[in-house]
Design goal:
This protein has 543 residues and is an alpha/beta fold. It has two domains: 111-198, Diaminopimelate Epimerase, Chain A, domain 1 (Roll), CATH 3.10.310.70; 206-532, Metal-dependent hydrolases (TIM Barrel), CATH 3.20.20. Helices cover 31% and strands 22% of the residues. The longest helix is centred in the middle third of the chain and has 17 residues, at 206-222.
């Protein structure tokens, strides 16, 4: 006996790219509640409709699975929209001017916080110092974070509040830049030294957090993101407020997208706390889940804190900075493995990647029941032997194609021409059978997945440079690029059974676009706008 389907909604007259190999293309789909129940030809799907079915004629537009950003920072994105936006600065003078304008417009702010400057785009490629930030305010602490998030600049007032002076030792896993003659701090803080200031900044209230999450999540929805995997939990000090903000938004229906929270717990005690919290609250309302342990093993290439096995070509005095000793990293990964918790580790330099692979291999050998897929976030400066090991161990790589338009201008300068040959090796990863997921690391870069697709397809900047693409053998096809931000991200999060394709039984998370993003000229992706975004069959954005 055939079960009668009475769809609540039917979407028809569309080009549907399902990413389901059993039915790659369709014209219509039927939903019941928040799930897909049928996909096929217009006539067949429309025939399922009943009197109560909502009919949606998409007039020839294109439907793709909802975009899924495998690694970003939603709260940081909202906070960057709420503070000094430094992304437009093209000089230190620009930064000072932007800061001064912000102070004049926001006299009630006790701290002057900003993010997004990139000294690689400055007319003179130099980092600002405390003396520059002191021109913004000498009474209020000023604290600006570089676009990568691994270098920050503190004003004299901020340094004073933190007790950072010539006599203070560098913290483990971090460093304070100093004047070579006087030993006085210049204001430039790297890696864990950033926390010396950050921990002084008043913790945002639940209402503050809700405000910035709302802003950022609506921005994400407008770009076609239906899920973000967001690294928004950092230690236990702010954990309760952040969880409560997400819970309230999720349970009240104010969160337009789905969020899987990645949690940075860099000590054993903090990780144990997170494991207990996750056991009690695996979900926060319908739209938020608690996800993997997210660790940092090194810093950024732009800031020369990514940990390499060789000296930086443009600064032979350093080979970067490992955040954890190997034993510390092993201990954290092993504890997570024993709880069958997924682990995702930020690793950019090849030395850091070696450390992460070693820790995963050790945990797999010791814990046979660890079925959660291990992940490496970024995996930029790789060697062929490392890629072989990743494939053998089943490590998922969370890559950020959107980094390439910026990074292609300085990678060779940082690591040398020879080492650069096997970097950002996306096509090679796929050929070796390494599962790859697409992210943005926003607000480090834009979380527009169409821009991410453009970078994956062309390996060019937004001025079409270089002509054939940077290391063009690693370019992806349009369909492969779309898969990064859909099926790839769903697989990374171990949610491929409910997300990633437009198939019967899956969540009705999808995006309506004016054209097929896998077939247009790649340059069109930079201008293409999302028509509508649907989460669980509900329209959460319409242009």
């Amino acid at each position: 006996m055939t079960t009668l389907i009475e769809p609540t909604q039917v979407f028809y007259n569309a080009t549907i790219i399902t990413l389901d190999p059993s039915k790659p293309r369709a014209e219509a789909m039927a939903l019941v509640g928040g799930k897909i129940v049928a996909v096929g030809k217009n006539e067949g799907i429309k025939a399922l409709a009943c009197d109560q079915t909502e009919m949606h004629d998409l007039q020839g537009q294109v439907v793709v699975p909802g975009f899924n950003d495998s690694h970003m920072h939603l709260i940081n994105l909202g906070q960057s929209m709420d503070g000094v936006d430094l992304t437009k600065a093209r000089s230190v003078a620009d930064m000072i001017s932007l800061g001064q304008d912000f102070v004049a417009e926001n006299p009630s702010h006790a701290w002057i916080l900003g993010r997004g400057f990139n000294d690689e785009t400055f007319d003179q490629k130099v980092l600002p110092t405390r003396f520059d930030l002191d021109q913004i305010s000498q009474d209020k602490p000023v604290f600006f974070t570089r676009v990568c998030g691994h270098i920050a600049i503190a004003s004299a007032k901020a340094l004073e509040l933190a007790g950072i002076d010539a006599n203070m030792q560098d913290p483990p896993g971090g460093s304070v830049d100093r004047d070579p003659e006087t030993g006085q701090p210049t204001g430039v803080l790297r890696e864990n030294a950033i926390d010396l200031i950050r921990r002084l900044i008043p913790s945002p209230s639940v209402d503050d957090l809700k405000r910035v999450i709302r802003m950022a999540s609506h921005k994400a929805a407008s770009l076609g993101l239906t899920t973000v995997q967001s690294n928004d939990l950092h230690g236990t000090r702010t954990l309760i407020n952040r969880l409560e903000a997400y819970r309230q938004l999720s349970e009240s229906g104010e969160l337009p997208i789905r969020v899987e929270l990645q949690s940075t717990m860099p000590t054993i005690d903090e990780l144990k706390t997170y494991l207990e919290v996750k056991k009690i609250h695996p979900k926060l309302g319908s739209h938020v889940t608690l996800g993997p342990l997210k660790l940092f093993s090194d810093g950024s290439l732009g800031g020369r804190t990514a940990a390499l096995t060789f000296p930086y070509a443009d600064d032979p005095t350093t080979s970067g900075m490992a955040i954890h000793k190997q034993e510390e990293l092993n201990e954290l990964v092993l504890l997570a493995a024993e709880a069958n918790l997924q682990v995702a580790v930020h690793a950019i330099g090849d030395r850091a990647i070696d450390m992460v692979i070693d820790s995963y291999e050790q945990a797999k050998n010791k814990v046979s029941g660890w079925t959660a897929r291990p992940r490496i976030i970024h995996a930029q400066i790789t060697r062929p032997d490392q890629l072989q090991r990743m494939a053998k161990l089943g490590i998922v790589c969370d890559i950020q194609p959107i980094f390439v338009p910026t990074d292609l201008h300085f990678v060779e300068t940082r690591v040398g021409t020879e080492a650069a040959q096997s970097t950002y090796a996306w096509k090679t990863m796929q050929e070796l059978g390494i599962h790859t997921a697409g992210g943005s690391d926003s607000p480090v870069e834009s979380c527009n997945p169409l821009w991410g697709m453009h970078a994956a397809i062309t390996r060019q900047d937004h001025n079409s440079y270089p002509t054939e693409g940077w290391h063009p053998k690693e370019r992806l096809t349009g369909l492969e690029a779309l898969a990064l931000f859909t099926t790839g991200s769903a697989y990374a999060a171990q949610e491929e059974d409910i997300k990633g394709t437009l198939s019967p039984g899956k969540l009705a998370d999808f995006v309506v676009l004016p054209k097929d993003p896998t077939q247009v000229e790649p340059e069109e992706l930079l201008e293409m706008k999302v028509t509508a975004t649907y989460v669980g069959g509900q329209q959460v954005f319409a242009r």
